[in-house]
Design goal:
By secondary structure, this protein is an alpha/beta fold. The protein has 8 helices and 13 strands. The protein has 2 domains: about 140 residues, NAD(P)-binding Rossmann-like Domain (Rossmann fold, 3-Layer(aba) Sandwich), CATH 3.40.50.720; about 160 residues, Dihydrodipicolinate Reductase, domain 2 (2-Layer Sandwich). The protein has a 7-stranded mixed beta sheet. It has a 6-stranded parallel beta sheet with strand order 2-1-3-4-6-5, with helices on one face. Helix 3 links the parallel strand 5 and strand 6. Helix 3 runs parallel beside helix 8. The longest helix has 16 residues.
């Protein structure tokens, strides 16, 4: 049984990791490190775990751990690894943006299992993709795989309040978020860089724009993404392309009926629907930003790294009503 640790244990993604790893049959959760909650019961922060675990947040790190998950704020993972030692055999899964760009001279593999499965199996260090990046990349990746991204891609995606993390800000208070809807970071969201990177890995000549409008929804979790671009083929050809591309994907499914968030929230699934309108292909993708867009994908990556079944510990049930 492998030993796992979590760094930055008080946030939303860490909470999801604890819930998954606590029940993972191939793993023991060795420590949960938090500088802000040292010595406190984990249930003080993650209150739904009351009666499930007696673990406390630790102020110390086990450097001989088999795998460590970094659930730190963006920019903090690099600093943490510079200041803390792990053994040469410790595998690392980083959930921040710090190591997602491959041209920055590090040894992290971009951990999108649908496109990097074989590399992930051999990797020691994984940069877990962002939540918007996962939803958008999965929506258009099959087109790039066949060099079919010929024009600009227009993307509109809505995320729940948990996408902003636990730190309070003007736009995360209930009184602001409830019964409200807003766009932010239009055309310049930080996830665009990694999405473009994934497209160019499959279609190096891709030079069109990804016109991305992110939105804040008045719900807690989930991402609903619509993307459209020119496509000369038929709907049937697009469906065949997508179903073939995701044929062996453990959690990504191409469906023909309407998709919505209640199908995927509290699961590690991404559902994709295709529609054709004239010369436009409309792709809709939905996923849970904290699971498929973060912690669930991190565990999927860990399963691949250690030779477990891809879905071990990840067959979660949606709360449909």
């Amino acid at each position: 049984m492998i030993q796992a640790g979590i760094i930055g244990g008080a946030g939303y993604t860490a909470g999801e990791l604890i819930r998954i790893l606590w029940r993972h049959p191939g793993l023991n959760l060795n420590f949960i490190y938090s500088t802000s909650q040292t010595g406190m019961p984990v249930t003080k922060i993650h209150q739904d775990l009351l009666g499930e675990t007696n673990l406390q947040f630790s102020g110390e790190i086990n450097s001989d751990i088999d795998v460590v998950f970094l659930c730190l704020g963006h920019g903090n993972s690099i600093k943490f690894l510079e200041e803390n030692y792990f053994s040469e055999t410790t595998k690392i899964v980083d959930l921040s943006t710090d190591y997602r760009m491959s041209d920055e001279g590090h040894m992290f593999v971009y951990g999108l299992p649908e496109s990097k499965k074989e590399q992930i199996k051999k990797a020691n260090f994984i940069a877990n993709p962002g939540c918007f990046a996962t939803a958008i990349t999965l929506a258009i990746l099959p087109l790039a795989s066949e060099k079919l991204l010929k024009d600009d891609v227009h993307i509109n995606a809505v995320t729940g309040a948990t996408g902003a993390g636990t730190s309070l800000s003007e736009t995360t208070h209930f009184t602001w978020r409830d019964n409200n809807f807003s766009a932010y970071k239009a055309f310049e969201h930080q996830h665009l860089a990694e999405i473009n990177q994934s497209m160019k890995n499959l279609q190096p000549e891709f030079s069109s724009a990804l016109n991305f409008i992110p939105n804040r929804g008045n719900f807690s979790r989930g991402i609903h993404c619509t993307a459209y671009t020119n496509f000369s083929g038929s709907l049937e050809e697009a469906q065949e392309l997508y179903k073939n591309y995701y044929n062996d994907a453990a959690f990504t499914f191409v469906v023909e009926e309407e998709v919505h968030l209640k199908q995927v929230v509290n699961t590690n699934k991404c559902l994709i629907r295709l529609q054709k309108f004239g010369d436009k292909l409309l792709i809709t993708s939905v996923l849970d930003n904290l699971l498929k867009g973060a912690s669930g994908q991190a565990v999927h990556n860990m399963n691949l790294m250690f030779g477990f079944e891809e879905d071990m510990g990840l067959r979660l049930k949606a709360n449909y009503f």
